[in-house]
Amino acid sequence: MKLKQVILYIVLFVSFTGLAQVKFEAEASKEKMGVNERLRVDFSVNQDGDNFNPPDFKGFKVIGGPNQSISQSYVNGKMSFQKKYSYFLQPNGRGKFKIGQATIEIEGQTYKTPYVDIEVTAAVNTPTEGTNPEIIAADNIHLVAEISNRNPYLNEGISVRYKLYFSPKVNVRQWYPKDNPKYADFWSQNIDIPQLSVKEDLYKGDPYQYVVIRETVLYPQKTGELKIEPLTLTIPVNVPSDRRDIFGRRLYETVERTVASNTQTIDVKALPTAGRPANFTGAVGSFNFKATSSKDVLDATESLQIKLQVSGKGNLKLFQLPKLKVPASLEVYEPEHQENVNTNLSGMYGNISDTYTVVPQLKGKYPINELNFSYFDPRSETYKMLTSEEILLNVENGPVNNTNPVTTSASGEVNKQAVASAPSQFRYIQLDANLQPANQQMFFKSIGFWTALISPLLLIPIGIFTGKKRKALAGNVEGNKSKKANKLAKKYLSEAKKNLGEQKSFYIALERALHNYLKAKLSIQTGEMSKDKIKDLLEQKGIDAQATAGFIKLLESCELARYTPSSKVEMQQDYDKSVKIISELDKQL
């Protein structure tokens, strides 16, 4: 028995050792290649790890990657796992090169791949990697960010236009945002593109087609060098393969390509200090300023409105209007602020205004002095001052303002004149109390007395019945969870339901509802998180894979629906899915 037990333990130990063994390998598509060929290098590991670092591909230029893929399978009850990082390389010249060691961390231990030897010879007549789908996709898809002005002033608007270039060799029908730039040092606003259109242009001298997929207006809030983060997209690309159909036509293969724009840098200039007006509040652009009154002639205690308005083009939402100053005899209330501002690729335009309600108390004529508004004009690089016209208010009827000076008589006594007041000034004081004698009837043994005495006794059986009912409802835990979850889902999705049939408004409201739900339940800022991070966070909270995948798919549907038409039936289906997913997430959370 002891010998058999020893053999069994040895077998189990060897088996577990084999299962736990980490295999981190590097594989090249060829060991010898022409200078006009492409090379694919795969780094694969059989366990999930962190902090993967690729080697320095000395002697090569990375033209694609990293493309990451994960595969899992069960064969005869045994699980196999593989994570692969793929790079596509182009040699810089002839010679013998070594692909360095990649590293990865697994359970606190660092693993390295072996070196890979590659020999690059003179150009070959027929390159063998020319039809590799990943290489074709990498060569023929490019995302470019165009900046309108790389040296703006502080608070001067600039635009970023993202163009997706693709050659006629491949087909692109849709794309999905994978990582959106955060614009941390900018005030930003995306510009709606109502209809995407395909245009033709040259990209590095070759004929390409392109689509403007996003336009964003930025107002820098800091000076110095600021970085604009790249936009990253995931794109299913149809590329030609080596296979043909029965009619000899080439068949296409779909590969997924991740493409990103380059990180852009702009140098923001500070506004000049020379000539800066004392009342300058940060307005940058080209503006007009005026002050208008709703009426010039009125009676005392009658109200009027005075509007201060700035109109034009510039950072309209990022500065303050001048404050209205009136004589002491005019009562003025806090202004109502209004913004009528639109944004296009050249920046904000429209008008903003503060409307004051003013009530004169006394008869007379009251001048409201002119007001000054200053702004910086980036075209002329100078500060400009605008002045409103003076407003004269004529209050015709009402108490007279006592403007006579105080005098002293010969005996030294002070002579004061009576101050006129409005007839209704003390109207709120009630002089006639109009009291009524109290009712002398006794409350004891009256109808009200017996009603108040017996009513609590009658409520006892009602309370017992209600308590049993609530206890029974409280015992139905699953039912209560479902009701609460459905109620919460419909609360967040109420705005989306109102916009059913209006595609753009519906999907914006639906996406906002999904993000607001996560913010409320998980106390996170979802505007700073990608779908991958949201997925990881939900998995950490114990949400099952099906519910997590459904939530992520809904977010992708909202993003895709901005660029592809959707019917009302599809919107209703997405709404129903959202109710179901939020309800399921809420029950699990």
Tell me the count of domains: 4
Estimate the global geometry from the Cα principal axes. Answer: flat
- Estimated helix fraction: 10-25%
Distance between the termini: 51 Å
Counting DSSP H or I runs of 4 or more residues, the number of helices is: 9
pLDDT average, as an integer? 81
Radius of gyration from the alpha-carbon trace, in angstroms? 38 Å
Main β-sheet: number of strands, strand sense, barrel status? Answer: 5 strands, antiparallel
The poorly predicted ranges are 13-19, 404-426
Pairing-aware structural class of the strands and helices? alpha+beta
Q: What share of residues are in beta strands?
A: 35-45%
In total, the number of strands is 33
Kindly describe this structure.
The two termini are 51 Å apart. The chain folds into four domains: 23-127, Immunoglobulins (Immunoglobulin-like, Sandwich); 136-268; 285-395, Immunoglobulin-like; 478-588, Up-down Bundle (Four Helix Bundle (Hemerythrin (Met), subunit A)), CATH 1.20.120. α4 packs across α9, α6 (503-522) runs antiparallel to α8 and α6 (503-522) runs parallel beside α9 (568-588). 21% of the residues are buried. The chain contains nine helices and 33 strands. Strands 11, 12, 15, 16 and 17 form a five-stranded antiparallel sheet that branches. Strands 22, 24, 25, 26 and 27 form a five-stranded antiparallel sheet that branches. A four-stranded antiparallel sheet has the order 1-3-6-5, with helices on one face. The chain is an alpha+beta fold and 589 residues long.
